[in-house]
Automatic annotation (TrEMBL):
Organism, scientific name: Camelimonas abortus
Reactions catalysed, as given in the entry: iminosuccinate + dihydroxyacetone phosphate = quinolinate + phosphate + 2 H2O + H(+)
Record's protein name: Quinolinate synthase
Major localisation: cytoplasm
One Gene Ontology term of the molecular function aspect: transferase activity
Domain of life: Bacteria
UniProt EC number: 2.5.1.72
InterPro entries, sorted: NadA, NadA_sf, Quinolinate_synth_type2
Pathways per UniProt: Cofactor biosynthesis; NAD(+) biosynthesis; quinolinate from iminoaspartate: step 1/1
Underlying gene: nadA
Length: 331
């Protein structure tokens, strides 16, 4: 997705203009409780020379209200290399903040809640990766970006859901290892002739969707176009009309303008895309990511006020993790 700069990224954003954009997804009473934090965060960003990078799963008052750069994991990693500010606030989960730090070792990277984790990142350790390597000598190890810096440090290259197929095929080999998301690996394998050895990690949000959910939605909402994130089980992706990263789903809606659409992914994504497409009807089955939802306007404000919580990566891990992340960005 071309990385969008939300209205909030303007130098002196007008809170009324921000609300005008999000009024379809945030009721006026709710906005009243956000307005003070929104204004304070803009002032703090100016004082501290800080930027806010926000993932597509952040709530609309963050995504459209205070973020400077928004996007999928790939876009956030790419944009992190271009940031011209002293402080980066990562409104997203911990592995995203670590990736920003890996790419900006000399900048201060803050995360509003350090407990914002990820079930995929939790599913694998550096020792696991070393074991997989021992079991499959000579095969390149591709690590999904939803992993800790220490796991990335054991890998040959990283990938995101936006570039996984390209990365798998970039080796020109018949077989590769891709960890830790089993479903992403199987979904990518279905699109290429490369054999992929996978791990058993799953996203706790996307694994909950089923083909029966899709059948039920098609019955209840005739004509609905179904978009599924590739972290969904392969049977779900097969039953959908399109599969792609959060950025690709957003692009799909912008390019195809379906009359009625459902995004099989995290809840806030539909709100954020709906803001830009009032003509599209969004069906909203809601699976929340509890980790993404740890980030709030209140803790973003606090994090800028107090300079907490700083994300650090030990120097030796950072140096080793930077190699696979930079290789990914170069592909
Ligand atoms: P994207 O890279 O598609 O934004 O996905 C990140 C993520 O955490 C999905 O659950
Ligand atoms: Fe991790 Fe899934 Fe949450 Fe994304 S949605 S951060 S993969 S748990």
């Amino acid at each position: 997705m071309p990385v969008s700069a939300p209205a909030a990224a303007a130098a002196r954003p007008d809170p009324a203009a921000i609300y005008e954009r999000v009024r379809r997804v945030i009721p006026p009473m709710e906005w009243a409780s956000f307005a003070d934090d929104v204004a304070a965060i803009h002032e703090l960003k100016r004082q501290k020379n800080a930027v806010i990078l926000a993932h597509n799963y952040q709530t609309p008052e963050i995504f459209h209200g205070v973020a400077d750069i928004v996007g999928d994991s790939l876009a956030l990693a790419r944009e992190a290399t271009r940031v011209d500010a002293d402080v980066i606030v990562l409104a997203g989960v911990h592995f995203m903040a670590e990736t920003a730090k890996i790419l900006n070792p000399d900048k201060t990277v803050l995360i509003p809640d350090p407990a914002a984790g990820c079930s995929l990142a939790e599913s694998i350790t550096p020792a696991d990766v070393r074991l997989v390597r021992e079991r499959h000598p000579g095969l390149p190890v591709i690590t999904y970006v939803n992993t800790s810096a220490a796991v990335k440090a054991e890998s040959d290259i990283c990938c995101t859901s936006g570039n996984a197929k390209k990365i798998v095929e970039s080796f020109g080999l018949p077989e590769v290892v891709m960890v830790p998301d089993e479903y992403l690996a199987r979904n990518v394998a279905a699109e290429t002739s490369v054999k992929i050895i996978a791990w058993k990690g799953h996203c706790e949000v996307h694994e909950r969707f089923t083909p029966d959910d899709i059948a039920e939605m098609r019955r209840a909402w005739p004509g609905v176009v179904v978009l599924a994130h590739p972290e969904c089980p392969p049977e779900v992706v097969a039953a959908a009309d399109f599969s792609g990263s959060t950025a690709r789903m957003s692009e799909f809606v912008g390019a195809q303008r379906p009359q009625r659409v459902v995004l099989l992914t995290e809840c806030s994504m539909s709100d954020n895309v709906a803001v830009n497409h009032p003509e599209v009807e969004f069906v909203r089955p809601c699976n929340l990511c509890p980790h993404m939802k740890r980030i709030t306007l209140a803790n973003i404000r606090r994090c800028l006020e107090l300079g907490e919580h700083e994300v650090t990566v030990p120097a030796d891990v950072l140096e080793r993790a930077r190699v696979p992340v930079e290789r990914m960005l170069a592909v």
